[in-house]
Each structure stands twice: as structure tokens, then as C-alpha cells.
Amino acid sequence: MKRLLVLLSLLFVSSSAAELRVATFNIRYAARGDKGEKSWTSRRDLVVETIQQMNPDVLGIQEALDSQLRFLAKELPEYSFVGVGRDDGRKRGEYSAIFYRKKRLSLDANQSGTFWLSDTPDEPGSVTWGNAVTRVCTWGKFTDRSNGKEIFVYNTHWDHRGQPSREKSAQLIREHFAGQKEDKAPVVVMGDFNASETSAELKILSEGEGGLSNSFLKVNPDEKERGTFNGWKTTGTGGAMIDHVLTSFELVISESQIVRHHRGTQVPSDHFPVLTILKW
Fold it and tell me: Any signal peptide, and if so, which residues (predicted)?
């Protein structure tokens, strides 16, 4: 009888758990040197199509310039976003913005914002760790309108050259979300980390008490085709996975996939997005 009651309680928790679709997507900035199918004007509709196919409740975008961000906001009116340009804390430079479905989630304006991955995280445009360029992390506390549950979401883009700066970025982000533990809300950290799952940088986020799980690898441990940087190709993605969705223990990972959506030979970006479906 006791075992039956335990099973029934687990079934009840499972059936009442809220499903949350979370995705990270480096959309590639609108570079003047990108021509033909690589140009933003050529692929921007495919970017929107890819996002619509994933149907995320929360979406972390990396490398978006202000014009790209405004285009996505116009084409995806069901979403709001939080984030600023990394160069001046307003509109200059790339954003690491978080889009969220307005009807599903509300953002706590007092617990959200952008901080710079440097020794002076509140100083817009600051670079102190030898980064090749300015790097940021955008975060927010969201409430599910359907059930009142809360969740912290972080979206970041780490440096592509400075490994020591990535380690310090990991330490800063971990300190930040650890500082929210009194809220007892689960945490998602996602983005383009420019680092594989076995790197020292990722281990800073994953190891020890309060460490995060790599959602894709937790449900696909034997997957060999895990490369997320595609080099503008539709196939041959057996390289390192550098785009990740990391989650705290309270979140059940029901599914995670690399979304290799393309149209003929055209891909939406030089990165494939990662979609994770969570329950909590």
C-alpha cells in the first residue's frame, strides 16, 4: 500500500508539472562581409521560421545587433525581450537578449538586467579579463502566469579567444545565480559559451553543490553528432558542442535537441540552436 501511494504521488507530480520550452540561438550578427545566402537579409526569414518551429517559451539570442533584434520583435509579436547592447548598455553592439512569451511568463523588472563579464560588471562596455571583445550576460526572474512558479534565466555569450576570461565569466555567473538561492527558484543558464562540455569553464558551472546539468548531454549521452557551430553547412556537425542549455536540479529534462533546420543549402546561422523541454 505504501509503495502504491508513492507511485500515485509521483504520477500526480508528473501530471501537474508545467512544461517549459527553452532555446538558445546564436543568430550571427549582420556582418557586411556575409554575402549571398549568408547575408542577414537573405536568411532572416529562415531565422524566424526556425524560432517558430522550436516554439520556445524562453529564447536566448546571441550576437543580435539592434536592427536584428527589432526585426525579430516585429516578426514575433507574441514575445517581449530583455537586454541591452553590450558596447554602451543601450543600443550599440551585440545583444545577448532573452525573449519570453508574454502570455505565458511575466518578468520581474526589479530582478532582471544585464551585467558585463569583467571586474566591473555594472560598467557598460567594460573589458578587464583580456577578452577579444566586450562580453555580457542578461538575466531575469520570470513567473509562470498559469501557476505562479518562478524561474531564473541567464543568457550569455563568452569570449572566443580568452580561455582565462571564460573561466572568470563562469565564476561570475555562478556567484550571481548562487546569490539568488533564497528565492529557491530553479535556474537556467544558456548561451554560446565558446567552450565544450568537458572544458574547465563549463565545469565551474556544473560541479559541486548547486551545480548545473547539461540538458542535451543528460538525455543524449551517446550522441556523437553534437556540434552546434556549423560553419554555414547543413551537415558534418561532429565537432564540439559550444552552445548549451544548463539547468538546476529542480528541473526535469524531458527532451533536448540540436535543431538543424535549413532550407536547401541555406542554414539560418553559422550556429544551430539548442531546444530543451523542461518540467518543474
Answer: 1-17
